[in-house]
């Protein structure tokens, strides 16, 4: 005491959480008797003494995590080379915790960076048995967490275990749903086992994994997961009516906050025998994913749900058509209808509007458009405007695949009126975009541009404008408004967090670079897309092959161009996506012209006019090729008078021809 009171002094008390009461008493006594003393404590929970000022130490930032990992790894392996993406993935798995990062980096003396990243799927087991000379709570990752876990009271431990069922942030209401009182939650925040994030709370994944291990060992996992699943089924079902009307914006944003929790709930209901509840949840999430533009996500999870076996006479079967409808809606947008019958099975034996929607999209997937129209016809004047809008949307899909542009536009206009009546921004925006494509196809640029901006404004209000901006940019390109298209695409690349949307934007930017003659930049953009991680859906893959084929033709590599364009055509034909077939066919016409077959090129351009529903006279590729093939206009005009079926047959034959 005498030594500390003689001059200004800083005293550090480390790891106070294990002796917090004694540390608090010591700090108070020292500060009372030594006026020039300052005490700095490191602790997982505050001392709660007068004059205490808290300074939370968060996990390291991504950049700092990366630097620490590389520094520690090269201490053992000076020649280490690792991609930034892999290092970031490792550091994210370790929650940016410095000790965990050091433990992981030390493992690189005996394995590759890729093996380390894969091993961290089980981070607690994988990072066991570290430095023998370190204290137990610094020796391995499990020891680090156990050091903080052991001082908890029995109630706190049980609460922390139950909170481990939340894969993302949660509210006090959610916590109470799984049996954790708010007061206990606040205590876990004080002990640094749970972090507060605004009005929500979260566990670091490392702590959550440890808590989940304890929950399983103590036999409480099924009960806690049942409660978690019930909580988020309740949220989904409360959201459902609002997703079809003026509450759509607020409720889709609310569901987005709990996306991982909703997915975990759906998976638990599916895998643990409550099929009816799983189907109820899946139907709501399918509409939510459609609104968000997360079509590939919907296709993956709803397919898994529809694949789950049903017992004979299962009452849940009456809920299945709604999930089939959500699956087919998203599969249509994702270009994933090729195996729709395998996933969905035969059309439901019901005369309801939902059954008709399912039967119509199944018919579209199998090119039975007349049958699809017939099954929709009795329901088109349904009294509920949202239902009416969806049925008109289904018929517009059928019209589009059969090339009946005039009837398609009429159905779209009816659907827009119906969605506007309900206050559904998503449906209105989607269909205005479709009308814009139709107007740009016939050269009505002014009307197309106005429709695009109206659609974009609706999607911006809804918060789903990242995906819509890509579609809008593509329609602006069709209308010849390449400057506006570039603005939208660059916004997506700068703002969007979705890998798919950034990839689609870069593909379109590559086309813009090619129009301007910057083939090197176009190639670099497509290389970024090709190297990007993540599975691509058929629509994105077709878009990529189309752009790559056009670029290869521009560089003179006609064999490479044919390879890409045939791949794109096959994907678009399987969807079916007539605007994409037309876009690909323009590239094929370019290859034919450059290869010395201008008459065939002109016929392909004329057939593309038919399947597109118009000449698209302002699209940059169409403008250029129309000029270059002007001497062969008679062949274009003859093909442009074909029926849709005849034009498709011509294009299919052309894309199957060698050379």
Automatic annotation (TrEMBL):
InterPro entries in the record: P-loop_NTPase, TPR-like_helical_dom_sf
Full protein name: Tetratricopeptide repeat family protein
Protein source organism: Nocardiopsis alba (strain ATCC BAA-2165 / BE74)
């Amino acid at each position: 005491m005498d030594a500390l009171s003689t001059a200004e002094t800083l005293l550090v008390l480390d790891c106070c959480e294990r002796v917090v009461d004694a540390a608090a008493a010591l700090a108070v006594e020292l500060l009372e008797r030594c006026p020039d003393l300052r005490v700095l404590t490191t602790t997982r929970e505050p001392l709660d003494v007068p004059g205490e000022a808290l300074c939370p130490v968060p996990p390291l930032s991504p950049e700092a995590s990366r630097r620490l990992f590389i520094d520690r790894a090269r201490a053992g392996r000076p020649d280490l080379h690792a991609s930034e993406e892999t290092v970031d993935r490792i550091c994210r798995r370790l929650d940016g915790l410095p000790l965990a990062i050091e433990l992981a980096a030390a493992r690189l003396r005996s394995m590759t960076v890729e093996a380390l990243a894969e091993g961290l799927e089980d981070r607690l087991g994988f990072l066991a048995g570290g430095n023998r000379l370190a204290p137990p709570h610094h020796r391995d990752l499990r020891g680090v967490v156990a050091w903080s876990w052991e001082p908890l009271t029995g109630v706190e431990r049980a609460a922390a275990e139950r909170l481990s069922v939340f894969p993302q942030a949660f509210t006090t209401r959610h916590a109470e749903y799984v049996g954790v009182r708010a007061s206990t939650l606040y205590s876990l925040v004080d002990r640094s086992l749970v972090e507060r994030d605004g009005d929500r709370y979260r566990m670091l994944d490392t702590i959550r994994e440890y808590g989940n291990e304890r929950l399983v060992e103590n036999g409480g996992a099924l009960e806690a997961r049942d409660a978690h699943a019930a909580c988020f089924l309740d949220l989904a079902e409360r959201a459902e009516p609002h997703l079809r009307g003026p509450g759509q914006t607020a409720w889709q944003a609310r569901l987005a906050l709990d996306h991982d929790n909703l997915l975990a709930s759906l998976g638990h209901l599916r895998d643990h025998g409550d099929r009816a509840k799983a189907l109820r949840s899946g139907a709501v999430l399918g509409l939510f994913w459609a609104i968000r533009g997360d079509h590939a996500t919907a296709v993956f999870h709803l397919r898994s749900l529809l694949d789950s076996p049903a017992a004979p006479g299962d009452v849940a079967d009456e809920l299945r058509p709604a999930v089939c409808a959500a699956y087919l809606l998203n599969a249509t947008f994702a270009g994933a209808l090729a195996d729709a019958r395998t996933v969905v099975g035969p059309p439901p034996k019901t005369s309801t509007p939902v059954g008709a929607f399912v039967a119509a999209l199944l018919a579209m997937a199998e090119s039975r458009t007349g049958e699809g129209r017939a099954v929709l016809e009795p329901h088109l004047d349904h009294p509920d405007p949202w239902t009416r809008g969806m049925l008109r949307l289904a018929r517009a899909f059928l019209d589009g695949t059969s090339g009946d542009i005039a009837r398609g536009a009429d159905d779209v206009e009816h659907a827009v009126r119906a969605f506007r009546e309900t206050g559904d921004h998503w449906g209105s925006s989607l269909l205005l975009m479709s009308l814009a494509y139709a107007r740009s196809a016939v050269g009505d640029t002014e009307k197309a541009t106005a429709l695009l901006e109206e659609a974009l404004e609706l999607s911006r209000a809804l918060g789903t404008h990242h995906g819509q901006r890509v579609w809008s940019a593509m329609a602006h390109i069709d209308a010849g408004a390449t400057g506006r298209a570039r603005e939208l695409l660059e916004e997506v690349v700068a703002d969007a967090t979705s890998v798919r949307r950034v990839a689609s934007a870069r593909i379109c930017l590559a086309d813009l670079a090619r129009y301007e003659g910057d083939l090197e930049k176009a190639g670099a953009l497509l290389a970024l897309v090709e190297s990007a991680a993540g599975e691509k859906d058929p629509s994105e893959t077709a878009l990529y092959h189309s752009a790559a084929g056009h670029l290869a033709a521009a560089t003179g590599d006609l064999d490479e161009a044919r390879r890409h364009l045939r791949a794109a055509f096959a994907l678009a034909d399987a969807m079916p996506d007539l605007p994409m077939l037309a876009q690909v066919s323009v590239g094929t016409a370019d290859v034919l012209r450059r290869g010395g077959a201008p008459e065939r090129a002109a016929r392909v351009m004329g057939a593309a006019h038919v399947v597109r529903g118009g000449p698209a006279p302002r699209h940059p590729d169409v403008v250029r090729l129309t000029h270059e093939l002007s001497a062969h206009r008679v062949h274009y005009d003859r093909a442009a008078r074909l029926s849709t079926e005849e034009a498709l047959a011509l294009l299919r034959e052309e894309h199957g021809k060698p050379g």
